[in-house]
Design goal:
6-stranded antiparallel sheet, single chain
């Protein structure tokens, strides 16, 4: 049985040509749209000898290149299709290319469709492709090509549209079948894509994106067999991957049937391989999961359980939603590591298999961790110096870190949202990013795992830092590892603690039977001062032109006075729409400027990526001090940050809500670290 998967959007195409998988039931494939002639440069672009297309810095933003062969029109895209072309960059650089289908030339362009962009890289010619989802009954009489990269000449030839409808001189354009009766095929346990089968090979399309290239080749251990090989180039993005297509299917994920497997031959152990499933016509509906390679230059079967969702930079990806109908499958090799960091790496793979039901065993009893986190082992090149000074040297391996060696604390469960806190300082006065990783077991059997976000430890004065850890459900962890993201900066880290961690830690009552006080809410950061801005959707920005002290003030005076008699945290929901990162911090003041003292400045936390996530910053007890001013600052200029739902659990407030705010919730469970 063929394992069929849908076409994604992306990059280097199936180099075999011919059938792209549209016909799986005996129908006739439509002829591809050829004869495309992109020969008109408009509004400042140029076309040079040898089909070198350039988008100069002086060209209009909307400048591009138009097809001038009217014989290819009208184009219909009744089925999922692919634009393919041959591309290269003579200078050896990279440039992004995209296409636009329009009902008619400007101005009567609607309905229209803009494809994703594909990155053409290097001076060697290669085949590229961009997926085009079905456009239904729409017809198009204008095809335009755009470059997103200015001042880079790109050679583009042999443009074609496979599985596109329309009269192209090739006869029937009605498209093929998807299974004999026009219906999607739902996988059953054991269905597998066998790349050694010649018929299945003929149907497979590899759609690469981000700097990978995939093709069929000989098995490195058996020259009589054929497998897939993916090269992740030295210029690849960390998210570079490959989507596989042989037709139209459903991956029937349920609460118990969540597992796939892939045979992989990798160059090293400890490399992350990720599988991602998406709804065919809605990439926002997805689920992804990771597995780690354990063999070196040898075949192994990796198992992927979509009930254990992957993380990106310590932040969880979308949770499995079994109501979604998943039809696209992509694979990512050495996920999370760019080509610039790893160099070119090559993976062989085969036997994509739908396994179905995985191991969902749970005895219903939460293990009880013990006290005493002891991060005392430096591995793969890191060092621990006198006074708990942790360093990540430039010579250390990328994955080098520091492990807890007190096995008495295991297993750890994190059934509730939790917070890791620690005391940190940088003796040199510089800054360094610190993060943690929970693993099912020490390497190599690490999954399921969870990577926290990183927090920036700044300056030579000791301060309390915290990192939010969302609930990990019933997962248990027998390995706790600490990492530094900053090389060659010594960081002192002590007093590591986990708040609201599940189980008895030997500290007696953890408050499970108590009534949690309400957090301090109603915080309204609505005044931008001295050059900052607040845009629609609570987008806060600290422009380059703003004063050094510019920030954002709370304007709801009902929350004052604030008291912080116990250690607590500030929590908020944050994201960066551009996908970049920005540092956020807060300041408590006795009164608004100028009578601000006593005051307290929190550490900064880094908000990363366009997906909303919960962040927290530790606030140590301020004793009997009271505060009538709360200010938020960004340390990063010219990056818009969305910040909502700011709250301070355990803070006292001047507004009587009928709830005692004098206690810290959740109660901190201190796990003292051995030095």
């Amino acid at each position: 049985m063929t394992l069929a998967t849908d076409v994604y959007s992306g990059c280097p195409a199936n180099n075999g040509g011919g059938d792209t998988g549209g016909d799986t039931g005996g129908g006739s494939d439509p002829e591809p749209v050829t004869g495309i002639q992109i020969t008109e440069a408009f509004d400042g672009t140029t076309i040079g000898e040898g089909s070198v297309y350039t988008y100069p810095a002086s060209a209009a933003d909307w400048a591009g290149f138009a097809n001038m062969n009217a014989d290819i029109y009208p184009i219909t895209l009744a089925e999922d299709s692919v634009v393919t072309f041959t591309g290269s960059v003579p200078s050896g650089a990279s440039a992004d290319v995209r296409f636009r289908f329009e009902a008619n030339p400007y101005p009567a362009t609607e309905p229209s469709f803009d494809t994703a962009a594909v990155t053409v890289t290097g001076s060697d010619s290669a085949s590229y492709s961009i997926a085009v989802p079905s456009q239904g009954t729409n017809t198009f009489n204008s095809l335009v090509m755009y470059l997103n990269t200015r001042d880079v000449g790109v050679v583009i030839t042999d443009i074609a549209i496979s599985a596109a409808g329309g009269d192209t001189g090739g006869g029937d354009t009605g498209g093929g079948d998807t299974g004999g009766d026009g219906e999607l095929y739902t996988l059953v346990a054991g269905d597998s894509a066998d790349f050694n089968d010649a018929e299945e090979q003929a149907e497979v399309v590899f759609t690469d994106f981000g700097g990978t290239f995939t093709e069929f080749t000989q098995d490195p251990t058996d020259a009589t067999k054929t497998v897939a090989v993916t090269s992740k180039s030295s210029v690849a993005e960390e998210w570079a991957g490959t989507t596989v297509s042989t037709g139209a299917v459903i991956f029937p994920l349920t609460a118990t049937e969540t597992t796939m497997s892939v045979r992989v031959y990798s160059p090293a152990a400890g490399m992350v391989v990720r599988l991602k499933l998406e709804v065919s016509d809605n990439s926002d509906h997805s689920v992804e999961t990771d597995a780690l390679t354990t063999a070196v230059d040898a075949w192994e079967t990796l198992t992927f359980d979509f009930s254990n969702e992957a993380t990106n930079n310590g932040l969880p990806t979308a949770a499995l939603n079994t109501d979604y109908v998943f039809g696209k499958l992509s694979i990512f090799f050495n996920k999370g590591v760019s080509g610039a960091d790893a160099g070119e790496v090559t993976f062989y793979w085969d036997s994509l298999t739908w396994v179905g039901e995985g191991d969902s065993t749970n005895n219903g009893t939460d293990p009880e961790p013990s006290t005493g986190i002891q991060v005392t082992e430096a591995f793969d090149g890191t060092t621990i110096g006198e006074g708990s000074v942790y360093t990540y040297p430039a010579s250390a391996a990328d994955w080098a870190g520091f492990a807890n060696m007190n096995t008495a604390i295991y297993p750890i469960t994190l059934a509730a949202d939790s917070v890791i806190t620690f005391t940190g300082s940088v003796p040199s006065g510089a800054s360094a990013d610190v993060r943690f990783r929970f693993e099912a077991n020490p390497y190599p059997a690490t999954e399921p795992s969870f990577d926290t976000a990183a927090v920036t430890v700044t300056g030579s004065d000791s301060a309390t830092y915290s990192i939010a850890v969302p609930s990990q459900g019933t997962n248990t962890f027998n390995s706790l590892v600490m990492y530094l993201n900053t090389r060659d900066v010594g960081v002192v880290i002590t007093d590591i603690a986990i708040s609201a961690a599940d189980g008895d830690t030997g500290s007696g009552d953890t408050g499970a039977g108590d009534t949690d006080p309400e957090p301090l809410t109603g915080i309204e950061i609505t005044e931008a001062f001295d050059g900052t801005t607040i845009g629609e959707g609570s987008v806060y920005t600290y422009p380059a032109s703003a004063a050094d002290w510019a920030g954002f003030a709370n304007m709801n005076t009902d929350i004052y006075p604030i008291t912080l008699p116990e250690d607590t945290v500030i929590t908020f929901t944050g994201s960066v729409p551009s996908g970049a990162s920005a540092d956020v911090r807060f300041r408590f003041e006795a009164n608004p400027y100028p009578a601000t003292e006593p005051s307290f400045d929190t550490a900064a936390v880094t908000v990363t990526g366009s997906d909303s996530a919960t962040y927290s910053i530790a606030v140590p007890s301020q004793g009997a001090n009271t505060f009538n001013s709360l200010v938020m600052y960004l340390n990063t200029r010219d990056v818009g940050v969305v910040i909502t739902d700011i709250a301070i659990p355990g803070a006292g407030t001047g507004t009587d809500t009928g709830t005692d705010h004098s206690e810290l919730i959740p109660e901190l469970i201190l796990l003292p670290q051995a030095s």
